[in-house]
Amino acid sequence: MCGIVGYYGTKDAVPLLLKGLKRLEYRGYDSAGLALLSDTGIEIMKKAGKVMDLERVVDDSVLKGTIGMGHTRWATHGEPNDTNAHPHLDQTGKFALIHNGIIENYSSIKTYLEQKGIQFRTETDTEVLVQLISFLYSENGKSFEKAVRKALKQVVGTYGIIVLFADEPQKMIAARHGSPLVMGVNSGEYFIASDASPIVDHTREVVYLEENEYVLINESGHRIKRLDDEKELNRPTSRIDFSIEEIEKGNYPHYMLKEINEQEHTITDTMRGRLRLDEGSVHLGGIQEHLLRIESARDIYITACGTSWHAGMIGKYLLEEYAGIPVHLEYASEFRYRNPIVDGKSVIIAISQSGETADTIAALKKAKDMGALTMGICNVVGSTISRETDCGIYTHAGPEIGVASTKAFTAQVSVLFMLALHFGRKNGLNKAKGVQLAKSLAEIGPFVKNIISNTESIEAIAKDTVEADNFLYLGRGMGFPIALEGALKLKEISYIHAEGYPAAEMKHGPIALIDEKMPVVFLAPHDKTFEKVVSNIQEVKARRGKVITVTNKVTKELEKLSDYIIEVPTPHSWIFPILSVIPLQLLAYHLAVLRGCDVDMPRNLAKSVTVE
Ligand code: G6P
Known about the structure:
- It is a single chain.
- It is built from 19 helices and 27 strands.
- The chain is globular.
- It binds 6-O-phosphono-alpha-D-glucopyranose.
- 6-O-phosphono-alpha-D-glucopyranose (G6P) binds at residues 305-308, 352-354, 357, 360, 403-405, 605, 607, 609.
- Residues 305-308, 352-354, 357, 360, 403-405, 605, 607, 609 line the site of 6-O-phosphono-alpha-D-glucopyranose.
């Protein structure tokens, strides 16, 4: 939700900031703006729309300077228009601020400031913060740094911010609470951003700001402090671990298609060095120190949002089946406000591509406070969840930019398969079976390649169904979470209404919707659910629904019942969930393209949801 970028150095800041904003655009793309600081004051320019709309109107004869900041917005308070776009100025026009997060008590602060005669121009919560800083500056001894600290102590909510002040034109302050901030350092130059992607062009040396910390940059360097402590902190730099190529689109028309294609390698990358083929087991370095506690857990909670929650459902099914541990699957947004039965005998697994989802972080904190051991399954190295958990497993899928998650999902599911195999082996799964399962995971690459090479036949199905207003996705067992994920992909990027359902539940409601206009996607792996799924297909066919079947083995009966068949051969049917989601990603992709949708930046969505 919102991307922020700042530059402090000797180069012309505008092109640098615009490029940085493009890298962060996946975080929000309804409006964008820039602020430049110089001896003559602060100049800002902002525009509703995408970063390229801002770029078109930027006048670099006005916007000049070597210190500046930029913002790309996902609106929370106030509609996305030029006025509500960031940066925001205080009443005097001397303070400028960009913000990612939500100021929850903005209304009471606004009323207070209005009573003091301060006039507001926007509907945003962010303007309240910059006005408060300005107010506290004039009320409390005119110290820029103190005013920022004091204001941040008064606000409730979340923020990643950068603040500039015209009267101190050699300073930049950035602070975080609940929203991520990374600082790139390169001999006298500083880059601040919501994530490392705008920084990697310039330096690989970064410092991740921790919760409730701020950094002040000036001519003599930078100082990091906690908001509640005067002591200066000494933070060593870390190295960014991805390359520029990984965050560029290359020859692909969309990031999403690039990322779907990358799965041929990313799934294997996730498992690289972790599978023990001769033992039929797994080595997961990131949880090694806590294995005993995890193995003796009374119960496991898996918490996540969106696509990651769907991966969590696969994890629940696998862990219960192979490890014999009861697993509760929880939407993070629900878990955080319920009274779950969690204590020191529980383990909580937070699954998150970004590692920054506000609800997931809050659920994790709650479980930690209740005594649970916390484990993260994250893609972004150094993200908040990866740092705040007791242990974890990185998915190593590389940066995912397309808003609709694809390769991160298959990587999460791969990790969960490895976890299930690990705990399965501890809990009675014999070595021969373990070896067979581990081998099927290790051999997955060519099977992924085979699916991706069939993209034309999936595109043909998309062409035939592009007029449909609704889709149904049905599956049983492991097919159910994949049905949910297939439906989510479709609605996210094509805006076609789609529902995922357990196939057997169809007769309790959704069957009423079926007619010749309704495409129904069935997940039909050859496992213990196969015959039952075939019966459900019969029921749809009897009502003239359009059947699209995804299966790992085509049978005569399936051929007869299905209007379209997508064959997904598997080395072993247990990994059907990892493979069968890929054609559903491609189907959603082709439908969205055919309908002229903005695949990488679908309306109203954002990739990293740092507000609750
Ligand atoms: C947003 C994204 C989804 C993602 C979800 C959870 O809704 O658009 O693709 O699944 O957030 O994100 P996380 O980073 O925690 O996996």
